[in-house]
Amino acid sequence: MKALIIAEHAAAAAELVAGARTMADEVVAISFGGAYECGADKVLNITVPEGLTVDSAVETVNAAFDAENPEVVLVEACRHMKVIAGSLAFHADTAVITDVTAFEAAGAKSMYFGGIAERVQKAAGNVAIYTIGAGVFDGAEGANGSVAEQEWVAPARPVKVVSSQVIEKSGVNLFKADVVVAAGRGFAEESQLSMANDLCDKLGAGLACSRPLTEGVNWLPTERYVGVSGLMLTPKAYIAVGISGQMQHMVGCNRSGAIFAINKDKNAPIFKQCDFGLIGDIKDVLPAITAAL
């Protein structure tokens, strides 16, 4: 069996290749803008012409798919790659099984209805296409086999870049962090986030947040938002501070090794979903924990 990997980022490619090794005898990876050291048997690099977005590579990806004829396709679950996955599925006359969290004998497990339910699905056709988030497989970078440049196929309707702005990345890489501290609406004002940052410094943790802190008050960048339409994290420890625990948030962290919750509301839903809970005001609890570490 042959597997095709489609990933925009090197770390994701390495994880998907590792996962593909459990399913296929041969693994081919598609990279964008440079051949990732991901351990694939073959890497096909696609150089996107200046002025176009990665989404415009759909026809080129389709051509690579036709040439390789894989039985399974694993796609990084990020915005650009989801567009490519959908276009490829239409081209291959199949469907995409999205946001897979695990593979079982019966099929691929994923969440739906905003994360309140799980289902197991299996492809009915000759090829299966899955989008997979970070942390599903334990990946490790490795040497590639052959590397080749995939010939660009001009799309009929390209997506052009009108303008762009670089978003500066800050803090710990949340996908690789062993410990994540997540702040929620329990923080009454932006200055109180310094307490969460102090705890992060003591633990060597990354600071994340719930959706309202990025889209409601704009205290933190969207790259730190955890939830059904944000990040899906799998740290060893996840510390939710001032987060009520609505399912839309919890699906982004429920695969953590252990979940700790701090909330002054004893009836907060998160206390039914965490491993360890502490009822108290963050103004009292966080400084005390930080001082004790």
From TrEMBL:
InterPro entries: DHS-like_NAD/FAD-binding_dom, ETF_a/b_N, ETF_a/FixB, ETF_asu_C, Rossmann-like_a/b/a_fold
Cofactor binding, per record: Binds 1 FAD per dimer.
SUPFAM superfamilies linked: Adenine nucleotide alpha hydrolases-like (SSF52402), DHS-like NAD/FAD-binding domain (SSF52467)
MF (Gene Ontology): electron transfer activity; flavin adenine dinucleotide binding
Binding site for FAD: 185, 210-211, 242-249, 263, 281-282
Cofactor: FAD
Keywords for this protein: FAD, Flavoprotein, Transport
Xref: Gene3D superfamilies: HUPs, TPP-binding domain
Biological process, per Gene Ontology: fatty acid beta-oxidation using acyl-CoA dehydrogenase
Chain ranges of the Electron transfer flavoprotein alpha/beta-subunit N-terminal domain: 3-171
Role: The electron transfer flavoprotein serves as a specific electron acceptor for other dehydrogenases. It transfers the electrons to the main respiratory chain via ETF-ubiquinone oxidoreductase (ETF dehydrogenase).
Subunit relationships: Heterodimer of an alpha and a beta subunit.
Family according to the record: Belongs to the ETF alpha-subunit/FixB family.
Protein name (Swiss-Prot/TrEMBL): Electron transfer flavoprotein subunit alpha
Species, as recorded: Senegalimassilia anaerobia
